[in-house]
Every structure is written in structure tokens, then in C-alpha cells.
Known about the structure:
The complex is a heterodimer of chains A (229) and B (404).
Chain A: E1 4-13, E2 20-30, E3 35-39, H1 46-53, E4 61-66, E5 69-70, H2 76-86, E6 87-90, H3 102-112, H4 117-130, H5 146-159, E7 164-168, H6 176-192, E8 196-201, H7 204-209, E9 212-217, E10 220-226
Parallel strand pairs in A: 3-8, 3-9, 6-7, 7-8
Antiparallel strand pairs in A: 1-2, 1-4, 4-5, 9-10
Helix pairs in contact in A: 3-4, 3-5, 4-5, 5-6
Chain B: H1 2-10, H2 14-54, E1 57-61, H3 62-66, H4 77-85, E2 90-104, E3 109-117, H5 119-125, E4 132-135, E5 145-149, H6 150-155, E6 163-169, E7 175-186, H7 191-196, E8 197-201, H8 202-209, E9 217-222, H9 228-238, E10 242-246, H10 247-250, H11 252-290, H12 292-300, H13 305-341, E11 343-344, H14 349-354, E12 360-361, H15 367-393, H16 397-403
Helix pairs in contact in B: 1-13, 2-11, 2-13, 11-15, 12-16, 13-15
Amino acid sequence: MPLIEVKNLSKTYNTTAVPVQAVKNVNLQIEKQEFTAIVGPSGSGKTTLLNLIGGLDKPTNGSVFIEGKDISTLKSNALTEFRLHHIGFVFQAYNLIPVFTAKENVEFIMLLQGIPKAKREKRAIELLNAVGLSDRMYSRPSQLSGGQQQRVAVARALASHPNFVLADEPTANLDSRTAESLLDLMDQLNKDYSMTFIFSTHDPKVIKRARRIITLEDGAIKSDITVAN
Amino acid sequence: MLASLAWKNVWRNKKRSLIMILAIALGLWGSLLAGAIWMGWGESMVNTAIDRDLSHIQIHNQKYLQNKEITNFIPDGFRVLKETISVPGVKTASGRTLIEGMAASPISTFGVKIVGILPIEEKKVTNIHTRLIEGKYFESNDRNPIIIGKKLADRLNLKLRSKIIISFQGLDGSLIYAAFRIVGIYKTESALFDQSNVFVQQANLFRLLNTEPIIHEIAIRLQSSRLMPQIYNEVKTKYPNLSVQTWKEIAPEIAVTSAAMESFTYLFLSIILLALLFGITNTMLMSVMERIRELGVLIAVGMKRIKVFTTILLETIMLSLTGAAGGFAIGGITIAYFSYTGIDFSAFASTMESFGASPTLYPFLPMSMYIALPLMIVITASLSAALPAWKAVHIEPATAVRIY
């Protein structure tokens, strides 16, 4: 059973006078431990597809199965609960809680999961060590660089033991050196922890590292290439 | 951690939160002080009336209440008086002989209630002796001494040591005229009382009436007003044929006004809190609108909407209670200070007197209000949080993360 299976997925926005079909009849499967990039120009539907896979948006047609479970039929609360336990998110603008320290940001997801304080503290420290921020645990996001904030975001995404991590343009706000360093980290986590990463990106650095590249054009899959190691 | 997040969010925009906290604190301070003054006013009206003439409980012949005739005295009144004084919880009691009559001077006449008292005993029950502005409280050796109110003295154009003619009906229906010498002029908070009550010694009245000692009223002072219901029941049970009344029954208008002061205080507080409700809602709404992306991310990563709602609610309650604590502190200190020194309203003395209150008020708030008020604030905060929290839980994470 594939980790993710997308069947006949479409999404149409009716917010404007003319309906916009952002995703058109997409079919794809993603297996565990993949390091996949969804690429394409702006407006090609990358983020919409990522949002549909992540359960942040509801499809107009079609289904998304995560380990065989159709999440497109779940109600809002059930979907939130599902995201909490199965999906990790990394956003372009980091989106950390500004009033919390790095450690508290990582812990917060585990708090929502109901994990006891001692256990979540231990895991938060481990994860921050793993992303190379052992010396910045008690810094607030405003005291961290963009790259450091994105590392905290990665640690937060991993904190809930997700089945996979969705990263929407994770390197878009980073300089190339920081972006490379972040990609090294994700690559390492992919290999060390068998963590599945799915990126939406048009950053060549990410595309170069990806082992599978799905190209979207006008909401439809134009190509799906698996890169040999 | 949710509480920690909420508390930290309160201080995210320090200036805005401080302005709101200050507004809540000042609003509460003002309403607490105004409420305490009203309560002090009500209390002053009650205490003044109790100290002046009402006392806590009064006993009469049942017929006297319907017809204030001299013949409707308390049968064996002095025995009842003696027994009443021995009831546990009773501090003291005074027997009064009451006669409706006329006071006349060379220029005018006026209807008065002649109150025959035993000065030593009456001094323990009421405080007329402390309200003398001229003369002494039955300390001279005059034949028929009398103490009258300032208002009556002015109406009849009488002064200290003037003669006043008192006329009243005797027990046999005959009219009795007697000349009295004014040995004291008193002034209380009630001009109405001052113009219609004159005090004479019981012995003189009994001589003029040519009767054995009789009393129409027993005024009882208790060790504590809290004992009133218990002693009232005891005395009422003991003398089923007599009328036993608390001051609340004798002067219901004072009881109602005093109770109304508490209601006014709650009403005033409610209006202030209602005004604050809109301010708090506005502040919290701004706070939520500034954080739509962040709240969207929280929902995206798995925070249930009910927890988002709880966080906004907690923030609002924390903000409001911080302001309330400030309001309580400065309000409490101000009330404590003025309850010790009193607030001098002598510039409005005539208005105060027309309400039967002392020109110096001692503000206070009952303990029940210190308990009710935090609850009222929590309710206000919860209502204030409703709109911002509703807004927060309806955030669509995909839109919030991308657009805001």
C-alpha cells in the first residue's frame, strides 16, 4: 500500500467571477521514504496540491488516501486530529509562534498530542540537537536567523512522529548557503529516520536534491520523473 | 502551556494591552468608589434613623399602630420593658410615653409628638443627647424642662430658655395645657423629625396626666444588628398580643432605599462593564486579526478549533482580570482610606439631610460585592471574547497561511 495515493484529484476555486481550476484530475502515488519535489511555475497548482495532500483544503473531486485512509471524507475536527498525528508541515515563512522559545515551539505540537511534559521536553531537546540548534533552544524566533527558524520548523514538523513531511517552498526565504544547509539536514533526516519529504518548489537547489520530480503545468501533471541515485 | 501561550500573547503588544488594562482598572476604580459611596449613603440613612429614634426593634400596643391615642399604652409596660432588657442579645431598651399634641409659642402653633423619656435610659438607646446644638440634656432643675428640634424652634420663633406651651389630651379625654422651659435645642439629619418631636421627662408627663407610669413604646437596641431576626422572633413569640416590629417594618422606605443603593451599585457596575465589553472586544479583535496567519498555522499543524477558542478566551480573561486586579487594588485602597476618614459632603448638606443621611459619608462595599465582581468581570471577558474567538475558529488554514 502506498503511503499516499491521490485519485482523480481536482480543485476548482469559485471565489472569482470565472472559476479557476487549480488542480486538474491528478493521479499519483508516493511511497515511504521518498524525497519528492513538486515543481512548476507560479500558478501551476503546486501549493494547492500540497494543501490537498496535507488535508488543509478539500478537493472538489477525487480522493486523497493516506496509508489507505480517505482523508477527503473526514470532517474538520477529525481532519485536524489526523494532521496532528500523521503529517508534518514546513512553511515558506517558517510560521513559528513568536512568543515561544525554539524548544517551546517544538514541544507545543506534542502538547496538542497530549504527551506528558517530561517526555515532550526530552524529545524537543533531541530534535533541536538533531537540527543543530542545541545552543539556541531558549531563543525566541525573533532572535534566530531565517535558516535557524526554518530548522526549528523542521524539528517541529518531526516532533509529532508524522508519516511524512510537507514542505511548501521551504528554501524560498533563505540565502543559497543556508538553503543548502537546510537541504543537507532534510536529506540526512530522510536517510537516518526514513522520513518521507514532499516539497513544492521552484528552487533548482531543491530540484537537484530530489529523487523524484513531479512537474505540474496548469494544474495537471506534465511529467513524473524518478532520478537515479 | 495553553495558559502560558495566552499570557504571553497578552503582552505581545504591550502598549495596547496596557491601555486596555488601564481602562479596565480606572473604570472599576470609579465604579467601585461610586458604589461604595452609595452603599455608605444607604448605611448612613439606616444608622442615622436607628440612632436617632428607631432603634432595632420596637414594641407597641397593637391598637396604638391604628390609633395613636394616649389610652393605647402597653399594658404592664414596665414589666415588659424589664423582661425585654434581660433577653440575651439585647443591649438595652428604653420605654417611651408618646402623646400627640400641640406646641404653641406667642406667634404660632404646630402639631408635635411629645416623647416622654427617662433621660438616663434613652441616652443608651438613641443619640439625641449628642445632637444638642444649644443647652443641656435635662441637667437643669427647671420644673418642666423640654428639648425641641431646631426646625420647630425656628417655626415657633423660640430660643433656648424660652417658654413653650404644650397641650394634649389626658387619659380621661380632658385637654391639658402645660408650660415647659426649653433647656435644649437639637438638630439631626432629618428636618422633618426635628420639627415634629419634642422630648420631656416621663415624671413630668405622669404628674400632668395624674396617672401611674405608662409607656406606649419600647425601643430596643441589640448587641449586633445580625441578631435582629432571632431576637425579633423571640420577643414576638413572648408577647403575641403586642406589636413587635423591626426598623425595616417601621420605616420601610429607609429599608427599600438602602437596598436600592446596592441594586444601583450593581446596575452602575454593569453599565461600566458593558462599556468595557466593547473596548475589550475591539482590542481582542485587533489582536486576532493581526495573527490570522499564526492561528491558521496552529490549526494547520493540528490544534483543534476548540483549543484555539480556549486560547483566545483565556487571553481575554487574563487581560480583563489583570485590569480588574489593578482596579480592585486602587479601589480597595481608596475605599479603605475614605471609610476611615469619611468623605465630607457638607457642601450638599441640605440634600443629604432631605434623604436622612449624614453629610459625612463612610463608603464601604459588602463582602458579597467583592465576590460577585470578579465573576461579573469573567462573564464580561467571556462575552468580549466571543466575537474574536468566533473569528479565530473560522480561519481556514490553507488561506491563512498563504494570503495573510
